[in-house]
Design a protein that fits this description.
The structure holds two protein chains of two kinds.
Chain A lengths: L1 H36 L15 H11 L10 H17 L10 E3 L2 E3 L9 H22 L3 H32 L4 H7 L6 H4 L1 H14 L11 H4 L9 H26 L15 H27 L7 H29 L1
Antiparallel strand pairs in A: 1-2
Helix pairs in contact in A: 1-10, 1-11, 2-10, 3-4, 3-10, 4-5, 5-8, 5-12, 8-10, 8-12, 10-11
Chain B lengths: L17 H4 L2 H15 L23 E3 L14 H5 L5 E7 L12 E9 L8 H5 L5 E3 L14 E2 L1 H4 L17 H8 L8
Antiparallel strand pairs in B: 1-4, 2-3, 3-5
Chain lengths: 339, 191
């Protein structure tokens, strides 16, 4: 029992540090990608290739003035960014990061919690995420922040529906809500993307909207809303909001890789004869590679597409994605029935 | 209406076709275009480490030349100030005292010579107007500063050093045409 607790604590801390590190360096990669896509070089002043840029940004955010509007609700104002950060970090618990480790003949899963309703857990946590933004926007007592928060909450609620519906077809094929089972079933190259490309597309679009990423970044919409829900935030509170966005991006890329790209599975993995621990490491690196690619897609899309208008966003969500997702579920059901 | 530029496009509000409505082909095409830019030659350079090549006759920061013996060539005639379209040059003339023959080439010299680099448009007309070949534009860049006062360059910044090795080479800007023109004594200011 003691071993178990220690192992889980170590694993959870590792994943926490990993998510924070990835989020930190995503900011740099984002700016580098933006630069390269726009024929620029991107930040390269801090350290070689700008490797210390995230550090410099972090230090800057720490030393900025901690400003709080005097009409703000103090408790909620602080709760907002804390909640956003907490929820962003919570989701990583249910993701299987690799196949089982074997230490002293005992196998340890590379997953903090193998919940049998893993997907439901992730969706539940992501849905709470809207509170962080809503509370922050409300507590700031600023009309731009409030408008941004309202947009964010309506957008996230609308796209959650299509997102969950698109997953149902995957769950129907697997017959399990556990992420571990879903990954195990995609052994080798038997990935869900080949069977459910449509569901993946819907999920991808919804993931952009859920992460408030361009082309659905209406909540922060600099041109209209100054900064959206984080207009009144400064220093590390703003840092938390921005940081949480990148963690969310990382986690949603991980969820997508797990659900559709076989997680830690890779082609010809049965022909590779190595010890389970090495296998787990390779599996983790493969998963990380997939996450990196999907993260790159996030950035690539951001620097390609312009922002949607609010009514277009709602029309796309309610009138296109949800019916399509339902249609996908029905077709999957018919195909499973015939088989 | 008559088209003026022939570039105007007729706007039509026709309904989008199915492929246009689902956006995806357009989105993918856009992503293809942005991705191709990933590999193109970058328009920016890593500036202080890498500098762009300058033309040999680049018109940058001015220099006040000395003659072969290290004497200031400028006689404070004021032609450069008159020629300057931006009115960036100002000067005060002074008479050479006995014993200063090794400092100034002629009896009159500029005790104060200032160019306001914020006004200067680097056209090179001062250089063209100068009958004594005293002022030239060089390949050097005017350094940046935090204060406006820092951009008023006096003689201490404009004059080239006396040391013959540290002289600033302006031979590239002394074009043949200019040299010929300066010899033309029919022009009043060349007298």
């Amino acid at each position: 029992m003691g071993n178990f607790v220690i192992y889980k604590t170590v694993l959870a801390s590792c994943i926490l540090i990993l998510s924070l590190l990835v989020a930190m360096y995503s900011t740099l990669i984002e700016r580098k990608v933006a630069g390269f896509l726009q024929d620029r070089l991107g930040p390269d002043r801090a350290g070689p290739w700008g490797l210390f840029q995230p550090l410099a940004d972090g230090i800057k955010l720490f030393f900025k003035e901690e400003f709080m509007p005097n009409t703000a609700d103090k408790f909620l104002y602080i709760l907002g960014p804390s909640l956003t950060m907490l929820i962003a970090l919570l989701t990583s618990a249910a993701i299987p990061w690799g196949s089982d480790l074997v230490i002293n003949g005992k196998s340890y899963p590379l997953q903090v919690a193998d919940i049998n309703i893993g997907i439901l857990y992730i969706f539940a946590i992501v849905s709470i995420g809207v509170y962080g933004i809503m509370i922050g926007g409300w507590a700031s007592n600023n009309k731009y922040a409030l408008l941004g928060a309202i947009r964010a909450s309506s957008q996230m609620i609308s796209y959650e529906l299509a997102m969950s519906l698109s997953i149902i077809s995957v769950v129907m094929m697997t017959g399990s809500l556990s992420l571990k089972d879903i990954v195990e079933q995609q052994h080798g190259l038997n990935w869900n993307i080949w069977y459910q490309p449509f569901a993946f597309l819907i999920f991808l679009v919804c993931a952009f909207a859920e992460c408030n990423r361009s082309p659905f970044d209406l909540p922060e919409c600099e041109t209209e809303l100054v900064g959206g829900y984080h207009t009144e935030y400064s220093s590390m509170k703003l840092g938390f909001y921005l940081f949480a966005e990148y963690i969310n991006m990382f986690i949603s890329a991980a969820v997508m890789a797990t659900l559709f790209f076989g997680g830690y599975n890779f082609p010809f993995m049965d022909k590779l004869v190595v010890s389970p621990n090495i296998m787990a490491l390779i599996g983790f690196l493969v998963l990380f590679g997939k996450i990196t690619f999907l993260g790159f897609v996030f950035m690539w899309v951001r620097w390609t597409l312009p922002r949607f208008r609010y009514d277009q966003l709602m029309r796309l969500g309610w009138k296109s994605l949800i019916p399509l997702a339902i249609l996908n579920v029905v077709i999957t059901g018919i195909v499973i029935l015939i088989k | 209406m008559q088209a003026i530029s022939n570039r105007s496009k007729i706007v039509s509000n026709k309904k989008m076709s199915f492929w246009e409505k689902i956006y995806l082909p357009a989105v993918l095409n856009g992503m293809r275009i942005t991705f191709s830019h990933f590999f193109t030659k970058k328009a920016t350079i890593r500036y202080p480490e890498k500098k762009r090549e300058f033309s040999e006759i680049y018109r940058g920061l001015h220099v006040l030349k000395r003659d072969e013996e290290g004497r200031e060539r400028c006689t404070a005639c004021g032609l450069c100030a008159v020629a300057c379209p931006a009115e960036a040059i100002t000067m005060v003339a002074d008479e050479r005292k006995p014993g200063e023959e090794d400092l100034y080439r002629e009896e009159k010299y500029a005790s104060l010579y200032e160019i306001n680099m914020l006004r200067c448009i680097f056209c090179g007309l001062c250089e063209e107007a100068c009958p004594k070949e005293a002022i030239f534009l060089t390949k050097r860049i005017v350094p940046s500063d935090y204060e406006r006062e820092g951009f008023i360059f006096g003689k201490e910044k404009l004059l080239e050093p006396i040391d013959p090795d540290k002289r600033i080479d302006v031979s590239k800007r002394e074009t043949k045409a200019v040299l010929e023109f300066k010899k033309d004594k029919t022009k009043k200011h060349n007298l």
